[in-house]
């Protein structure tokens, strides 16, 4: 009996390898007669059995040529097959047996071939042993093989049967030997493409829509030529119909998306999978990051996953929803710019979906909103402050920056203001009004502030026509101060009964000297008006009012300042000329009576203490002419600006507050 030595040798092996090979060949001479006396590493009987029937071909394959056993790519080795019943080496027999390295082929199986066959792999220094069992069953006369492989078909859907001869096909492909396959249902040959059946590939039979009658035995037969012998090998499948089924899972979320999140925040993303079918599917869901499975399920871990939740639905499509959350309790820099993949594992396939986590864009809305909010608040505060302290702000600005305002002395005007007030024998005249116009205004505006006023009754030239005087002096003035009471613009004295009370109120807030003069003049005034029921406005008062309103409202060449000495009721205001009411509503009036009322409230406590000290004698505080009072601030606000900047007529002022 001849021993066959085969192996793979590296062309670069040196003298040591060559010497080892010689010793290896010499060592075989003493063990070619059997395998019993050898002390080899025993891998015992393979778990996988080979089943066959008489007349078929059978393939026994050893698993000893594996990197798990030895490095077969560099170490020379020899493979020998033995029959365990006789202990003799298996050799090629024409038409019966073919030995091809780690594979033992039976070209025509008989019942006598049933048994165990031993493979021994020898290297220069060691040997390995393994047994493989061939089971030969007798034919029963039925179509198909006695031993069947169980496979299931899902009722109502397209499904497949897989031929168990894939190992045979792979081995034949390694030999470059062509083969063909046929499918049978029972004894009937299934032609590719007929009815519901089609061959998807060499190993798969497709059934378009499974029905209960599709159960039964299916046989796949592989035919090929090996060692000059044409033979076949067959496997039978026992197909059973199952109502519970599941199709290819569909990963709905994530869907190849980009998600942005802020570093340091918590983050969660669900993996949502829909499995069409009936019943509970055997599907697993796993999250993968950086090619590693995320198996942590404890919240104590920074990155972990939840348990898979399960929910079955019947409409609109039958199936099951599976959901599993990926949770990151605190995002760190290393969590960004990577793909997180959700993969579902099932017998139908392994579909997956992923998302990419990126850091969130800088939140410019918050700072912009804060800036805009701050600007808005500052603007509102500024508007409120300006509204409440407008007069003070403007007066301070004029005082600090007079150079920004033009010098009015070069505009050709003679007076800063024209004072129009009820003259003697005119409606609305009283001693208090005359005192205010002839004494109070000049004392403050002229003496304290340096303004130049034109006051009728004081500055009129003797014999000068009233019309010419009014027209010329108003034209020569930069402002017009219209001083009025509640009865100034009424045609009858009795229509302003409230005016007398207001005049008495004014007189009570005057000083002692003014009070005594008021009593004398009131007596003469009452004597003048008792003789007639109607008293009309004098010509000068009418001309002043008409000229002022025309220039202020029509031409816009004159600014009129309304100086209100008494509180005006709505009924009294209704009797005013429409032009005065319009101007009062548009720009307001400077109210002397408010100033007196405030002084009266503040001075009531002082007067009571003085009355107690003087034994109950009536004492009054004189009106204050302080420039810091609200009334005089408003008067200065409406008066022309006394600037220092000199400009030519064609230039305009920088500010005109």
Query: How many distinct helices?
Result: 12
The main pleated sheet reads as: 6 strands, antiparallel
Structural class: alpha+beta
Tell me the strand percentage band. Answer: 25-35%
What gap, in angstroms, lies between the N and C termini?
A: 129 Å
Question: What is the radius of gyration?
Answer: 60 Å
DSSP strand count: 32
In round numbers, the mean pLDDT is 80
Shape: rod-shaped
Share of residues in helices: 25-40%
Unreliable spans are 1-33, 492-537, 612-622, 649-657
Overview of this structure, please?
The structure is a single chain. The protein is of the alpha+beta class. Helices cover 27% and strands 29% of the residues. A hairpin with a 2-residue loop joins strand 21 and strand 22. The chain is rod-shaped.
Quickly list its features.
29% strand; alpha+beta; 12 helices; six-stranded antiparallel beta sheet; 27% helix; five-stranded mixed beta sheet; 657 residues; single chain; disordered C terminus
């Amino acid at each position: 009996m001849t021993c066959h030595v085969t192996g793979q040798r590296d062309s670069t092996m040196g003298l040591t390898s060559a010497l080892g090979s010689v010793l290896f060949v010499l060592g075989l001479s003493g063990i070619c007669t059997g395998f019993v006396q050898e002390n080899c590493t025993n891998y015992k009987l393979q778990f996988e059995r080979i089943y066959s029937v008489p007349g078929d071909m059978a393939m026994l394959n050893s698993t000893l040529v594996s990197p798990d056993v030895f490095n077969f790519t560099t170490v020379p080795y020899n493979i020998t097959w033995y029959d365990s019943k006789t202990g003799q080496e298996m050799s090629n027999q024409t038409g019966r047996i073919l030995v091809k390295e780690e594979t033992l082929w039976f070209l025509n199986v008989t019942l006598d071939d049933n048994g165990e066959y031993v493979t021994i792999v020898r290297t220069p220094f060691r040997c390995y042993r393994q047994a493989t069992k061939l089971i030969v069953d007798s034919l029963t006369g039925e179509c198909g093989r006695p031993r069947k492989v169980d496979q299931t078909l899902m009722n109502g859907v397209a499904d497949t049967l897989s031929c168990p001869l894939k190992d045979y096909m792979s081995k034949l492909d390694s030999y470059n030997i062509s083969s063909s396959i046929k499918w049978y249902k029972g004894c009937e040959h299934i032609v590719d493409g007929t009815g519901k059946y089609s061959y998807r590939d060499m190993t798969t039979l497709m059934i378009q829509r499974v029905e209960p009658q599709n159960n039964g035995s299916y046989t796949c037969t592989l035919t090929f030529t090996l060692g000059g012998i044409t033979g076949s090998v067959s496997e039978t499948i026992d197909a059973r119909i199952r109502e519970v089924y599941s199709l290819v899972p569909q990963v709905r979320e994530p869907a190849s998306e980009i998600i942005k999140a802020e570093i340091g925040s918590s983050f969660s993303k669900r993996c949502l999978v829909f499995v069409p079918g009936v019943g509970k599917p055997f599907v697993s869901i796993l999250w993968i990051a950086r090619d590693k499975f995320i198996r942590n399920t404890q919240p104590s871990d920074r990155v972990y996953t939840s348990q898979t939740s399960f929910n079955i639905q019947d409409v609109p499509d039958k199936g099951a929803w599976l959901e599993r959350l990926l949770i990151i309790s605190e995002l760190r820099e290393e969590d960004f710019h990577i793909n997180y993949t959700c993969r579902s594992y099932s017998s139908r396939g392994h579909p997956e979906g992923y998302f990419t986590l990126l850091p969130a864009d800088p939140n410019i809305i918050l700072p912009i909103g804060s800036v805009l909010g701050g600007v808005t608040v500052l603007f509102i505060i500024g508007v409120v402050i300006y509204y409440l302290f407008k007069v003070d702000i403007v007066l301070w600005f004029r005082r600090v920056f007079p150079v920004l305002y033009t010098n009015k002395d070069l505009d050709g005007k003679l007076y800063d203001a024209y004072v129009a007030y009820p003259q003697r024998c005119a409606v609305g005249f009283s001693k208090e009004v005359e005192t205010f116009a002839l004494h109070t205004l000049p004392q403050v505006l002229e003496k304290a502030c340096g303004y130049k006023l034109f006051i009728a009754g004081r500055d009129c030239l003797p014999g000068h026509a009233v019309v010419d005087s009014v027209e010329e002096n108003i034209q020569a003035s930069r402002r017009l101060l219209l001083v009025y009471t509640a009865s100034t613009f009424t045609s009858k004295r009795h229509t302003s009964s409230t005016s007398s009370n207001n005049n008495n109120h004014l007189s009570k807030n005057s000083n002692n000297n003014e009070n005594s003069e008021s009593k004398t003049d009131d007596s003469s005034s009452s004597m003048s008006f008792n003789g007639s029921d109607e008293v009309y406005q004098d010509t000068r008062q009418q001309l002043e009012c008409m000229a002022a309103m025309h220039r202020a409202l029509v031409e816009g060449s004159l600014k009129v300042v309304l100086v209100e000495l008494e509180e005006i009721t709505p009924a009294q205001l209704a009797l005013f000329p429409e032009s005065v009411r319009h101007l009062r509503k548009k720009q307001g009036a400077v109210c002397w009576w408010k100033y007196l009322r405030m002084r009266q409230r503040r001075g009531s406590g002082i007067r009571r203490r003085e009355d107690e000290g003087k034994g109950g004698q009536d004492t009054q505080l004189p009106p204050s002419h302080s420039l810091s009072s609200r009334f005089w601030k408003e008067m200065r606000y409406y008066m022309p600006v006394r600037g220092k900047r000199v400009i030519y007529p064609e230039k305009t002022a920088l500010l005109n507050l």
